[in-house]
Description:
Blueprint: E1 2-6, E2 11-15, H1 24-28, H2 37-50, E3 63-67, H3 69-79, E4 89-93, H4 99-105, H5 113-118, H6 126-132, E5 145-148
Parallel strand pairs: 3-4, 4-5
Antiparallel strand pairs: 1-2
Helix pairs in contact: 2-3
Amino acid sequence: MVINAYFPTDRLDVNYGGSSGFGRKYIERLSTKWGIVDVADFILATHLLSAEPYNLIDPKRLTIRGGSSGGFTTLACISNAQDVKVFAVATSLYGICDLEKLAEFTHKFESRYLDHLIGGTIEEIPEVYKERSPINHADNIVVPLLVRCLLRLWE
């Protein structure tokens, strides 16, 4: 995990496992573990920076925000994580909440991308798709959540 902190604006960018720019091994950390490695890295970053010797952030006032796949990580952090109360509030900007639907309706260009991120097709490992989909854990959400989504009109 690589942390870029912008303290004048109280912003923390977490380059979670799978991010580019840190070598192949770092990118491959996310392989088959989307929704696990990224969530763990976000939670670890908040714990590290809110504890000794840093004490740089107030753990009671943390927010998380992400769009698309970042929205997926946001939703996973507040619904699937071991501690869903790490963040005080969350915003999902057109975030992915249902991996089964993503696999079913994604465009052709990325149609096989989930096989790598999740570890197989929905036909091969449907239980993993279900388990990692934040929509199936919505009852675990205990923090305020703003959801902004896009609607696509089908012809």
